[in-house]
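User: Write out your own:

AI:
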Amino acid sequence: MIKILKYGEVENSEIFARVEAKVDVEGIVSDIIADVRKRGDKALFEYCEKFDRAKLTSLSVSEEEIQEAFESVSPKFLEILEKAASNIRKFHSRQVRNSFIINDEDGIVVGQKIIPVDRAGLYVPGGTAAYPSTVLMDSIPAVIAGVREVVMVTPPGPDGKINPVILAAAKIAGVKRIFKLGGAQAIAALAYGTESVPKVDKIVGPGNAFVAEAKKQVFGTVSIDMIAGPSEILVVADKTANPAHLAADLLSQAEHDKMASAVLVCDSIDLANKVSEELERQIPLLPRSEIARESIDMNGKIIVAENLSAAIEISNELAPEHLELSVDNPFDYLDKIRHAGSIFMGKNCPEALGDYFAGPNHTLPTSGAAKFSSPLSVDDFIKKSQYTYYTKEALSRVAEDIAYFAEAEGLSAHARSALIRLEEEK
């Protein structure tokens, strides 16, 4: 049963305690990465047979396989995928940055260039599960950013095939290069390249502990989006919220895995008790009830605060991945939210909207990282170069200032590089 805590009556350490998923896979992952770097495709084929139980003759997914998968998916689901993709494109298109130039017409020009990365790697979990939403969410911003090539990796089933809905989503998103690879070995292949898999500049996408550790270890060789922890939801609710709705929303994250965290912060002990009762009623009805039960019992909590302002302060301290504001007039409170990955406004906006359909990205900072990081966006697939131009006359006006500054830092060669140009004028 979920814990009910009254804020101010229990230790803050209990209120703000967070799930820590610690799995020691560092050594195993390090060995896999080293092996892939050394043996390339041969290692990848062996790991695919070992971990995915698939004996492959090719790592690459052919155009024929993609088309066949696309045609096998129901027209209804394809229509929904297209609608979701359209919403995602509409939202992320507004994130596009522009280069700029500042010309003061006095011999000085400075500016900034926005340049997409050449190649991005997208990891999509697979095997027994299928996440076409991840395909759309992680590839569409890359395409909008102007990335020249998006390379997708996803583990095959024992039959050597990729789930058709994954390939259908890839086709809709515009991803053409797909490889049958999962786990740490897939991350290694993307980071360093093999005979078949091209080296990428950035790797994005969620995965298990092995994938997360591999991304951590290859960071620096390539860029990554983030190291994601267990999924989280925090719901701030007022006393008029529907207990059944709140329980359902908490369970939408609790069913992810046993380490997932579902938290309700409300202003009513009566509501807290009713939500607890609803959870007990709804959990047995879920196909993934065993997972949801352990998540709720071990990591779930209901925090009763004095008022909504206190509830929002608790939320800001926890900085959740997903935040639902299940209150009347939610926009009255939006400016008070400082730390959250994605915010769902009002009583008719379940977090599932964000997972699949609304348009804002569902790849979000977890474990309190919303205090200093952001959802995946077009910005993740660009880099910036800056440039400076001074005429001879413009430099002569500031050369002595530059030299003085450089000498103050003890860097006389810097000073000399500016002053020598003045000497040449004499």
Observations:
- The two ends are 85 Å apart (CA to CA).
- The chain has three domains: 3-18+229-359, 26-224, 391-425.
